[in-house]
Amino acid sequence: MLREFALGFGDREIKISLPPEQIINIVEGKPVAAITDVPAAVIAALSNPIGSPPLQTVIKSGDKVAIIASDITRQWVRHDQFLPTLLNELNAVGIPDRDIKLIVALGAHRHHTAAENILVYGQEVVSRIQIAQSHAPAKEDFVYVGKTSRGVETYLNKHAVAADKVILTGGIVYHLMAGFGGGRKAIIPGISGYATIQGNHSFCLHDVVGQGISPRCGAGKLDCNNMHEDMTEMAAMLNPAFLLNAVFTPEGKFARFVAGHWQTAWLEGCRTVESIFGVPVNSQADLVIASAGGFPKDINLYQGAKAIDNAFAAAKENGVIILLLECRDIMEPPDFSGWFNYESLRDREIALRQGFTVPGFVALKCGLTAKKLPLIAVTLPENKAFLKKAGMIAVTTAEEALTIAAEKLGRKNYTITVMPHAANTVPLVQTNA
Questions:
Q1: Which residues contact 115 (CB under 8 A, 6 or more apart)?
Q2: Per residue in 373-390, pLDDT tens?
């Protein structure tokens, strides 16, 4: 008797029936209770910090405080839900609102509008404190603070450097280059100058031109990750006084707040992320069937690339991946889709080395993955031409995808891993199994 799976595809589900004896892994995140009283959870984290004295001990009356906060591209962090509590706690230790400045960690992203500041941080925060936007190309807003051991000259936003105390905020998730988001990423790329961002992000590429991306940079990888280690050196130059980061449930609600030392507390948060979204699997499979999780996670290939990356980790070297990606906005965003116009992957890589962008990196990684393994995408009919250009095999039904997969594998007794929410879950292959 076949086992049926209902996998997300846009706003609907696609049903796939599979032989249960061939299924070796079902990769799902760990259920976790959501925080019901956010202010209380924030106060508890601030009062019981990790690797640091409590906030009220670290911050002294008379300090000028800078809070670094993520921009609108990280709206899911929901700063508006916890920043008012942080401001109140600062007030309680003698720091009035006039001595607090929020720095928007734009990196190289565009400026916020006034309405977007309200959307991301809430009307209360916008009304209470000063807001400065850190925009990497604005050279006059950055000051030199040193050079990393890898030779990257580090320029950080002048408002952060001038502050007596800096507090990092943000959310921790898996990150396809830096291992994990949050923590030191508030500083680099968040409040770093453009040349500094380019220098740091270049470590995501292979040391040898033409070899693509660095194998040391990937989701969950911190050890020997040059990009992460370089970021950590840059953060140490600023030496933030405190950190408040959020970890989320699979549904996107607050699961935990970690607070304290900018590195120690963040690492504890990373371990929590791994416990929720890192899924141990006994072995890699011949066939991985992965859904990003439906809309909006599969709104376009740029978003769907997270599922590709995670599915690749679950597949054998000579395996096949089936992806359920509706991609209703297949050509969005333009700064991603345009990277597929290069004649070859080498051309794409050379262009990326000349001017690094995260969408360009994702496009290069997609292309390199498609070169290593067949990527069969169940998608909308109108997406076929674009996905072919991206190196993928586009089909419109799961049945067609399974037929092609069996042909590619050349046998019927192949092993299968199913990933119903592949955009969020990272398979952790147990090497000692």
A1: none
A2: 999 999 999 999 999 999
* Maximum Cα interatomic distance, the chain, rounded to a whole number of Å: 72
Determine the 3-state secondary structure of 409 from DSSP.
Answer: helix
Confidence of residue 415 (pLDDT cuts 50, 70, 90): very high
pLDDT of the residue at 432: 58
User: Which of the four pLDDT bands, split at 50, 70 and 90, describes residue 433?
Assistant: very low
| 220 in any annotated domain | yes
Residues 11 and 97 in one domain: no
Identify the active-site residue in 79, 109, 159, 201. 109
User: Are the beta carbons of 303 and 292 closer than 8 angstroms?
Assistant: yes
Residue with tokens 């069969």: 376
Active site residue 159: no
Cα–Cα nearest to 424, from 309, 281, 266: 309
Residue where the block lists tokens 């840059």: 234
Residue with tokens 């891993």, as numbered in its chain: 417
Rounded to the nearest angstrom, the gap between the alpha carbon of residue 32 and the centroid of all alpha carbons in its chain is 20
What range does the domain containing 100 cover? 38-248
Tell the burial category of 40 from Cβ atoms under 10 Å away from its Cβ (0-12, 13-18, 19+): exposed
Q: Which of 79, 135, 159, 175 is catalytic?
A: 175
Q: Are both 23 and 43 inside the same structural domain?
A: no
User: Of 226, 248, 270, which residue sits at a domain end?
Assistant: 248
**Contact, 277 vs 253, CB < 8 A?**
no
DSSP 357: -
- Which residues are CB-contacts of 55 (< 8 A; sequence separation ≥ 6)? 46, 47, 49, 89, 90, 93, 242, 259
